[in-house]
Amino acid sequence: MIVKSTEKNGNQATVVVEIDKELMESGINQAYMKARKNIMIPGFRKGKAPRKMIESMYGAHVFYEDGLEEIFPQVYDFAIAGQEFKAIGRPSLKDMQISDDNIVTLTLTTEVYPEVTLGQYKGLEVEKAVAEVSDAQVQAELDRMAENVASTETVDRPAQMGDTVTIDFEGFDNGVPFDGGKGENHDLKLGSGSFVPGFEEQLVGMSAGEEKDIDITFPEDYHKDLAGKAVVFHVKVNKVTVTQVPEQDDEFAKDVSSFETLEELKADIRAKAIAEQEKQIQSTFENAAVEKAAENTTVEMPEALVERELDTQMERFAYQLQMSGYSMEQYAKMMGGDVNTMRKAFRPTAEKQAKVSVTLEKIVEVEGITVSDEEIAAEIDSLASQYQMDASKVKELVPAEELTESLKTRKATKIIVDSAVAVAPKAAE
Q: What is the CATH code for 262-423?
């Protein structure tokens, strides 16, 4: 092969390459061998037609495009990977010329890695909150712990707000039962607001075994089939229970923890809450510092880098949905759109993250960041421990180059974060 010319214009490069006859012929022959099994020509059994016969019927260059696909990895390594610029993604075939003596000349275009000019990335002033846990937050956690160990007791009296009633119910619209309006042995805590407004209040005063009809008007913003309608629910109370929440004292502390006193338990709750807050605050601080460094970077972002980041984010979100039992298409439909709509919604985040990525890569270059074999080995051991698999398996699954780049990026992030100056958050307007 011969590279006849190379031209770079902004984030795009054009390469003209001449393909060696022997190389092209090998690709064409590979394409023919794959295609002939599906080709039928009169006088020959299926898959047995000679190449020359096929070419005479369909054109001398019938296998050229498929043949080029067969040898494209070699073409890429020679014509694109060997250039001074760094290509992004797969090049596009802009033109293919075939001379009378069957010499193939290709014109390839590719997006290239952009020129990146760093701004300030050290000593950035970044807002950082201070961890604070109020008495109300501590009390809320104590209440939650008390609710978890609370006991229930069936009572023989009329229901009151705060009680739990076990009910059978069925809703009627002009005497006709409607979909979704029936339930049996349903536990409902009065005052929880989990049913239609006005429903729970009308159960107050009912005792076990009692039945009655309840008049309800659905809100205007309810389900379209029932919005604003006046309906009747026939309700039977099967049981009334009351929740016995333990008193929050030293005995309670002993029951729910390893502490001897309530004050010790409160102190532990506060300490854990502060530690969790500090972890979240530090993560927010680090992200803000890196994003600020990226904002200071000057770069004309290639579309291919944004699209690549967008693909990554969509794949990550699709995996999260899959773990919840949904597909991307199902979720998009529930949200009133389609996958393309979701992709547009993810785009601003992808653009920001793509700029963060090129900023960190440029810092790696400027700072001369390297990664030792020992650091790579330690990272492999860490991943093996995290995912409970052998280190050899991690090596198979995670390419060494990807691992190296990840560690370099992490070091670049550390340079930004370690030099950042924490400042108090601005008062909310």
A: 1.10.3120
